[in-house]
């Protein structure tokens, strides 16, 4: 009996240790994916859509490589009871590469005074404002940070919500060598279809005379004033890989450009359009045939009335 009692006692001790170890992390992110406190979990572990509202603010959106800046995430509402977790990520998909530090950011301080992209409070009461201090990536380019909240409602359900618009940062130093050009949309390597919005940011210490949009080296359009945005009708080009280029010239005759690769993929759009065209054509033919039948019947009735009147 004593041995059974010892086994029961040891079992209780072990369960207690497991509970103490696991419960905090389960409360923070049930089923979540973490590297220590570097959190990137999303709908993979918090499958219920949260009604919480998120907004983001940044102290600067155009910064030199390595410059410091502040990012604030505000949360209001939602089903959260007590515990609320908030993170900043650089890719919305919940993968390891979405942690900002994997994309060149350096987190110098999080809301808790450490250096993680995830922070949680156990006293959420309907609104919260969380601050991160970061150093920008050292490689020039366009970067976007998003916010995500994760919480429970006290019943075991797990909720998440994103600030899906994100905040886009342009990391570059204004050069005296000429215009610095960044194509910010579409994303390099992306697949596009239909009418595509092309957006570019141009930095220079002199005025821009004009900026030219080219596809595969052929000029599509140009603008003499900002904002430098164009609409590209991709359906007139072959599906496949293409080079998109924006070249800027300033008043001093200096030139700068940025070139990216995109893939045009309108096959699905066209395959969906073709059945619609055939359906419309078949419908038109059917209507015309029916109208023709009605006209023949009407003419036959008229002829009989005329013949009856002659008799």
CATH topology of the largest domain: Immunoglobulin-like
Helicity, as a percent range: 10-25%
Give me the count of strands: 20
CATH class call of the largest domain: Mainly Beta
Order of helices and strands: HEEEEEEEEEEEEEEEEEEEEH
Give a verbal description of the structure:
By secondary structure, this protein is of the alpha+beta class. The protein contains 2 helices and 20 strands. Helices cover 23% and strands 43% of the residues. Strand 19 and strand 20 (255-264) form a beta hairpin. The radius of gyration is 31 Å and the shape is flat. Residues 12-33 have low confidence and may be disordered.
Secondary structure layout:
Layout: H1 2-28, E1 34-35, E2 38-39, E3 48-49, E4 53-58, E5 62-63, E6 68-76, E7 82-89, E8 106-109, E9 118-124, E10 127-135, E11 141-152, E12 158-171, E13 180-185, E14 191-192, E15 195-203, E16 208-215, E17 218-223, E18 228-233, E19 240-250, E20 255-264, H2 267-310
